[in-house]
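quick one, two chains, predict together pls
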Amino acid sequence: MTEMVYYYDGSFEGFLCCIFDSYANKEILTAIDHDEDAMPTLFATRSIVTDRDHANRVFRKVVKCSPYAAELLRKGFLTCLPEKELHLYRMVVKLLKEGPDFLRNFSDEILYPVITAVRHLNGEAHLLKGFVRFSELGGVLGSEIEPKNRVLPILRSHFCARYREETFFIYDRTHKEALFYVAGKAVIRPLEYFQMAPPDETEANYRILWKRFYDTIAIKERYNPRCRQTQMPKRYWNTMTEFQDESYFRPQSSPAAVPAPDVPAGISAPGTPPAPGPSAPGSVP
Amino acid sequence: MDILEKLTILTDAAKYDAACTSSGGTRTSKKGYIGNTSSSVAGCCHSFSADGRCVTLLKVLMTNCCVYDCKYCVNRRSNDTRRAAFNPEELADLTINFYRRNYIEGLFLSSGVLRNPDYTTERMIRTLRILRETYRFNGYIHAKAIPGTSPELVEQLGLLSDRLSVNIELPSEAGLRTLAPDKTKQAILAPMRQIQTRNQQNKEELVKYRHAPKFAPAGQSTQLIVGATPDTDLHILRLTQGLYDKYRLKRVFYSAYVPVVEHALLPAKDVKPPLLREHRLYQADWLLRFYGFRAEELLDDHHPDFDPRVDPKCSWALNHLDFFPVEVNTADYEALLRVPGIGVTSARRILTARRVGRVHLEDLRRMGVVMKRAQYFLTASGKMPDGLRFTPDSLLRSLIAAEQPLLPQQEMVQLSLFDSAGA
């Protein structure tokens, strides 16, 4: 067994192929990195070519050993854990070597970093189910978020069920991707740049009403900013209607939005059309 | 009066109601409808107000005009305050537009008593009808059943809402007589009993007919005001326990009394709301619902109030030192839950981890056990943390020290040489 550094294309399938090839080549991985940030290194390296069949085989094997581990693998890949690939790789190696028993022990050394990262992801997604703020622009609901983890695949089922008959999109500023939902179909696509159009009269009006409701509902005698910040950390405030400055509530007549070529019809034009990129995260091969 | 002004007045009038949860609903999304209630078991918070309380529902009154004259209430008829009322259409439109923008999880509709309870409830029903039938709203609705409403109207209200609540407000009959002369204990308990029996019936109906209309599927809750009357914690906790046992309530909320009006029978206006007492009552409430404690174990006639320095569970542990230490590798779930610092989640984790190997002391922190409290009360494979020495006396002091930084601090005051000491 030799030690190796692997490079892959950044997709979930690509990562699964790293696991496949490490077994095929009898190599132990010391690092797994994106192609783009490949730095010259003294270690032996290998670039992995993504092969859907290999990815499928790895994932099916993990599901067979433990469906729970498969869920951790899929969700773990969406987290912002530093060196998440390596942590997940080690979890799979341990699973294949020892069986699924260690997954019951929350404090297991290999499992703990993965499981806390997944809890962080789930927690953030849960908070965002509440904190996402939509604006209506010509019948389409649009919103922006700035999460640490890639929460869009987790949020997808929630918002698609809730706004079943609507057309909406959520733009993730951190990971530069967007979730589009049109006519009962949802897709997640990379999107380099997006700028929200200014509100029209009605939209601005509801924003004002909501801000007023929010300011009125607090009881002065119980003022407790520390408690609020514990429950709702400040990093979410940026995209929430309650904490915007005055200009956010001023209506502006904007030029009508033009649909961009590749965007599903009915969605007001984002900055650039989505380029066909790596497959949406979270889609199981 | 425009809608912004109405919203301001009617929100301001509704804000003293503590209950604002969207929990317990399991309605999934339906074709042709907007919304669902199934985001998670515990509900979903959409914002947190400046007082740190969760904002999940659009909490407003239908109107703040009221024929009653309850002394503790801002909306009592003798109070000189601005009055407003929503039209059912206005309120339904506001709700649906807030909901579409994901500002809220649904509507929390309460009302002052306009003319009489029946007329008020009819107006509320009309609003909910428009929401459910015209806008095809499938999200969460929490409605207040007003004491004195006829059972037929409560029935209709229940079929339109997810959760109903009847506020008890004052924890004793004597308090009710002096402070809320228009309400009687009987009038409050009657709709509560009706909701409970109807809910029970509905469960049976649903077994027989899958599509039977659901009656308040998320159950009912109530609210008690703490600190307006001289009732003890023991009295409040016993009442709470009775409500959970006999009326099958989902939640009892406590609201620290905020002095809003000057009255000889009420605490003076400069009295701070008893927030710490409210906090301790909530802690005890959780012990009743999830930890298998009984009110009599936590308090008795010699200690009718909670110790403000330590939480009720620590307090219980200090009085039952013979129960400890608990061995985490062999103790059953109920015994684990009694250890301060171990909660429902960490107790479950210990149970699952135990099935594949022994649990060690250093694992416990990672499983979510709060060791600064738990270390005094447990052993793992017979071992306690190294170098831990304590007596019952020092134990109390260390537990107080452990919680101190988490509690609201007293404001610092600059000392002056010229003030007479202790003045």
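The first strand of chain B starts at residue 47 and ends at 48.
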